[in-house]
Design brief:
Blueprint: E1 18-23, E2 30-34, E3 46-47, E4 53-54, E5 57-58, H1 61-70, E6 83-87, E7 93-97, E8 106-110, E9 113-117, H2 120-127, H3 133-142, E10 156-157, E11 162-167, E12 170-175, H4 187-208, E13 213-215, H5 220-228, H6 231-234, E14 238-242, H7 248-260, E15 263-267, H8 277-290, H9 297-307, E16 315-316, H10 340-351, H11 364-383, H12 389-411, E17 419-420, H13 426-434, H14 437-440, H15 444-453, H16 455-458, H17 469-472, H18 476-499, H19 508-521, H20 527-530, H21 537-545, H22 552-565
Parallel strand pairs: 13-14, 13-16, 14-15, 16-17
Antiparallel strand pairs: 1-2, 1-9, 3-6, 4-5, 6-7, 7-11, 8-9, 8-10, 11-12
Helix pairs in contact: 3-11, 4-13, 4-15, 5-15, 8-9, 8-19, 8-22, 10-11
């Protein structure tokens, strides 16, 4: 089944920019691009991101080609988000993603035809695939995917550090990652090494890209990156914050900008509430396509709306710091093994709370089965690590949540704006993953890193939390502050769970209401959902009659599924 009847047709149903590569037997691979440079077998590598950077240096397409064909292990040092394609001497094509799998590239094969694409839906249309209900089950509970699964049967995502060669109707997979050999470091040594790394990286990057902006909030991760910028380079640096005056994030960032002579760019969602329902729906559907229907399109649409008014230029982001503080740690540090009970508790009390679809929206048969299946999948990926409980949760966060949720949101913008995340550098991740859980818990490592980089900034309170200095060293006073913060978070999470409430993303409730209003004016848009046996018919009918509006998590899944199955 042909994806496009003619070049450029139906492109908007897939994504704004990307490619689909096909190979039959024994034909050479052919690549069709839209919004990207035309494929040329004799050219250098086709970059599938706006840039490629290896440690402290930008790479040219020619250098990327040499890495792909002659030294693929060197790709492990290329900063996520990254992907590229090259032709092979035998007439095929090889594709690579970054070592963390952040740049989403998909593949599949059937009946002597191999497919690789930046769109899982494009692969599904080529292969004649339908929805994978197990993937829908996972996404209805988590809001994102686990492993390399997609919403479509027989279509998989390239795994972290994976290469795909398309030739003679087949997709052959290989890996360029090197086995981890890092010994557990001394905490003080890890702090010094990470500080030197971040200082070196950011100094070099700002010298190469003086127009870059730093995303700055009231949180710890962006604070660390600011601390790693030499004071001379802070003056005049553009810092970017999403929010409105009076928000803690905005107020803290504004105070820091004033203190160091930085230029503060404030992005806001003002005007979002004035969009008409049709425009809001189109914005969300476009966001769903860019996210490959595998994360919250309402959150991305709101962020895209705010970013549309941002100044151009590269962006420095703090994504990755969570890996160094044990994001999913529950209870006291332990080397206890993974058990089903621990994994189920983590899934139900921590992972399903924010983006899970309420059970009353789902059919009885799908609702209970989907929650049970998603729970078993969380148990499986934790058990498959073969590691103690806390180390296993670190693996879950980095290689599943970060790869599939963080990665797809980075993929959605990687061709529009250069975004670098220094704490995703392979050297920083190696330090963070080698640390003992006790050294990461309660932000101990990151807080010591903060003081090593800039003690003055380490004394400034975080958004709703004590300053990083309170987490760096054990003391009765610091322990009391940490306990109070932890108890507050726990009470909030328990309250969410008991009330059955989601925590909507910024702008999510506004867009959800507008999307529902558009569906009420155009009920035929929900017809693709009727044959899926996912949402209860009575619940959909009540929604269209104008009864209580659904939570944004339900609207997000509906937008994703309606877009994914349209014209499959």
């Amino acid at each position: 089944m042909a994806l496009l009847d003619q070049p450029g047709a139906d492109v908007q149903l897939i994504t704004q920019r990307g490619f689909v590569a096909r190979s039959g037997r024994p034909a050479a691979a052919s690549i069709e691009t839209w919004g990207l440079p035309e494929w040329d077998r004799d050219r250098d590598a086709l970059l599938l991101t706006s840039t490629a950077r290896r440690h402290e240096r930008d790479l040219s397409p020619a250098e990327v080609r040499r890495l792909l064909l002659a030294d693929p292990t060197g790709l492990a040092e290329v900063l996520p988000t990254f992907a590229a394609a090259v032709s092979t001497p035998s007439g095929g094509a090889t594709f690579a993603t970054d070592y963390l799998g952040f740049r989403h590239v998909f593949h599949g094969q059937r009946d002597g035809t191999g497919i690789v694409s930046t769109s899982s839906r494009a692969c599904a249309r080529e292969l004649g695939s339908g929805l994978d209900l197990e993937a829908v089950a996972v996404q209805s509970s988590l809001g994102w995917q686990l492993d390399q699964r997609t919403l479509f049967e027989g279509v998989r995502k390239l795994a972290p550090g994976e290469l795909a060669t398309l030739e003679d109707g087949a997709v052959t997979l290989a890996t360029f990652t090197r086995p981890g050999t890092a010994e557990r470091p001394d905490l003080d040594h890890a702090v010094r090494a990470a500080a030197d790394l971040l200082r070196t990286y950011l100094t070099a990057y700002l010298e190469d890209h003086p127009d870059a902006g730093l995303q700055l909030t009231g949180g710890q991760d962006s604070r660390l990156l600011l601390s790693a910028v030499p004071r001379a380079q802070r003056r005049g640096l553009r810092v970017v914050t999403l929010g409105v005056a009076g928000d803690p994030d905005v107020d803290i960032a504004a105070e820091l900008a004033l203190r160091y002579g930085m230029r503060h760019e404030l992005l806001s969602l003002s005007g979002l509430e004035d969009l008409d329902p049709a425009t809001a729906y189109d914005l969300c559907l476009a966001a769903a396509r860019r996210l490959d229907y595998s994360a919250d399109p309402l959150a991305h649409a709101a962020l895209s709306y705010a970013e549309s008014r941002s100044e151009p230029g590269p962006r420095i982001s703090g994504l990755g710091g969570e890996v160094a503080r044990g994001f999913y740690y529950l209870g006291l540090p332990t080397r206890a093994p993974v058990t089903a009970r621990r994994a189920e508790r983590l899934a139900h009390w921590r992972m399903f709370v924010n983006e899970g679809v309420p059970p009353e929206a789902l059919t009885p048969s799908f609702g209970q089965w989907s929650r049970d299946f998603a729970t078993r999948e969380v148990v499986r990926v934790l058990a498959d690590t073969g590691r103690p409980w806390m180390v296993a949760t670190d693996h879950l966060y980095l290689h599943h949540r970060m790869q599939r949720w963080g990665g797809v949101t980075e993929t959605a913008v990687c061709l529009d704006r250069e975004v670098v995340n220094p704490m995703l550098d392979d050297r920083f991740i190696s330090i963070a993953t080698a640390l003992a859980p006790l050294d990461k818990r309660n932000s101990r490592f990151l807080s010591r890193l903060q003081l090593q980089l800039d003690a003055e900034l380490g004394s400034v309170p975080l958004d709703g939390r004590p300053p990083p200095a309170a987490y760096a060293h054990r003391s009765l006073r610091n322990s009391a502050q940490q306990t109070a913060t932890t108890l507050h978070k726990a009470r909030r999470k328990v309250g969410q769970r008991l009330r059955g409430q989601n925590r909507p993303p910024a702008g999510g409730e506004i867009l959800a209401a507008k999307v529902v209003a558009h569906w009420r004016e155009n009920p035929a848009l929900l017809e693709p959902l009727e044959g899926l046996d996912v949402f209860q018919k009575s619940w959909l009918e009540a929604l269209l009659r104008g009864q209580d509006g659904p939570p944004s998590s339900a609207v997000a899944l509906m937008v994703n599924l309606a877009g994914a199955v349209d014209q499959l």
